[in-house]
Amino acid sequence: MSIELLSPAEMAQADRKAIEAGPFDGMGLMRNAGAAVAREVLRRHPGAERVHVLCGPGNNGGDGYVVARMLAESGVPVSLWASGEPRPDSDAARAAGECPLKPMPLAGFSAQAGSVIVDALYGAGLSRPVDGDCARAVELVSALGLPVVAIDLPSGISGESGKAMGPAFRAGLTVTFARKKPGHLLMPGREFCGEVALADIGISDPIIEGLGVQTFVNCPELWLAEFPVPGVDTHKYRRGHVCAFSGGPASTGAARLSALAAARSGAGAVTVLSPGNALAVNAMHLTSIMLRKTDDRDELDAFLADRHPSAFVLGPGFGVGEKARAFAMAVLASQAGVGGLVLDADGITSFREAPDELFAAAANAMPAFVLTPHDGEFARLFPDLAADERLSKPDRARQAAARAHGVVIAKGPDTVIAAPDGRAAVNPNGAPWLATAGSGDVLAGLVAGLLAQGMPAFEAACAAVWMHAEAGVRFGPGLIAEDLPRALVPVLAELVAMRCG
Ligand SMILES: NC(=O)C1=CN([C@@H]2O[C@H](COP(=O)(O)OP(=O)(O)OC[C@H]3O[C@@H](n4cnc5c(N)ncnc54)[C@H](O)[C@@H]3O)[C@@H](O)[C@H]2O)[C@@H](O)CC1
Ligand SMILES: [K+]
């Protein structure tokens, strides 16, 4: 598996362990890293009139000296600029010693149209905002619109959080080593990195596996083994029964979107639980999906006892208030074999004054609990975590999940899914087309549909987020939420084929 996302500290540990294990020492890894970058520069920019290599004082700069040497050996006109001397006796100093070009001070950096920039100023070691000559170089390159190939990370972007620590290069290509880092996928890092190419520099899989990494790229490899595929002998209730709570007569569409998505995900039966005064509106728009009047806790309890549903979606279009709180508590307290509760939108906001009550109920609940907040909703339930600027999005979501005793889907262009046990996955395939009304309702329904089919909560949440994004990307411009359930069909077909193949 190459789906681990390594923090800068984990990457440094991987480097150390690889050096201990051999065959490459630090210099060997650096030569491999530089060679991989030089190859990409030659491949992507064969017509470059000149390549400017900008080296910092650390090992990222060391990679830069290797790139400069190899490009020069290939006959490319190279200008080498350095922001400072490498530490004596470091690998970077050795790489500089092997490079036949003499670096010019970065303070005098200038470049012309037709040039390509190799950014080797800072990588994993970035510890504060880029300033001085480096910041001026960032500005100049951006003003000239020159293509940038970043080594490991664009200088100025945190590998841990993806945050821009002051000025940062906007790369067209970032070449990183062994595994991607969270900052390659988290915003705004994802945008600053451009395309990310992964190079093997001689750090073996067992070394990475030994690190106990808890952060992953959200892709089918992470959860496919748990993806539900019905057996030939199945029947509809064995494929799970999802229920979506509808709002009043003027806000019923959201629950129907959740219901449709749950049905598309493979749940065998889906019911919309509707207030009596919205039954007629819902009935007019439902065909294969069932409908049941549920106005109060008694009616919900009777339904639970009578039909033994598998998973619930509560929140889309539901309205904020006591009724949402009572229904959520009833589902979490259910001993009737309910597999999961997905709390979204108004369901989340309903607990803004009393999140601890919700979390205490989830701690003792039989149903798996999944929360799907966007940033605003996240801040309502976890104001302290939302305000803590030191936390990366995965760490924020991890802490929220542990506190909530549930899986948290922290939505956004870089959706993060986190479990109470510390696992977190960063979604790589989000697209702007998904930022449309009702898109979240579809996601909530998908999660519930997968929970109903017995998929474990973290994997169900990850799979739903990935499928939702994939359907949106493939549909592209013009997407509205109503399109998503249908757009899921080819994605599902491929997953089932992969699972069975
Ligand atoms: N053996 C290894 O450790 C390998 C490291 N590799 C490269 O090494 C890089 C990491 O090297 P380093 O740990 O030396 O870190 P960097 O080269 O990213 O940074 C060097 C040093 O600069 C200082 N610094 C950080 N931010 C600054 C700022 N904004 N302004 C001024 N100074 C600042 C810090 O003291 C930091 O340690 C990776 O990104 C990768 O490119 C690769 O060569 C593969 C092998
Ligand atoms: K860099």
TrEMBL record:
SUPFAM superfamilies: Ribokinase-like, YjeF N-terminal domain-like. Pfam families: Carb_kinase, YjeF_N. Its cofactor is K(+); Mg(2+). It catalyses: (6R)-NADHX = (6S)-NADHX; (6R)-NADPHX = (6S)-NADPHX; (6S)-NADPHX + ADP = AMP + phosphate + NADPH + H(+); (6S)-NADHX + ADP = AMP + phosphate + NADH + H(+). It comes from the Bacteria. One of its GO terms (molecular function) is NAD(P)HX epimerase activity. Keywords: ATP-binding, Isomerase, Kinase, Lyase, Metal-binding, Multifunctional enzyme, NAD, NADP, Nucleotide-binding, Potassium, Transferase. AMP binds at residues 411-415, 440. Its EC number is 4.2.1.136, 5.1.99.6. Residues 11-209 form the YjeF N-terminal domain. (6S)-NADPHX binds at residues 59-63, 123-129, 152, 254, 317, 374, 441. Binds 1 potassium ion per subunit. Residues 219-495 form the YjeF C-terminal domain. One of its GO terms (biological process) is metabolite repair. K(+) binds at residues 60, 119, 155. Belongs to the NnrE/AIBP family. In the C-terminal section; belongs to the NnrD/CARKD family. Catalyzes the dehydration of the S-form of NAD(P)HX at the expense of ADP, which is converted to AMP. Together with NAD(P)HX epimerase, which catalyzes the epimerization of the S- and R-forms, the enzyme allows the repair of both epimers of NAD(P)HX, a damaged form of NAD(P)H that is a result of enzymatic or heat-dependent hydration. Homotetramer. This is Bifunctional NAD(P)H-hydrate repair enzyme. It comes from Aquamicrobium defluvii. The gene is nnrD.
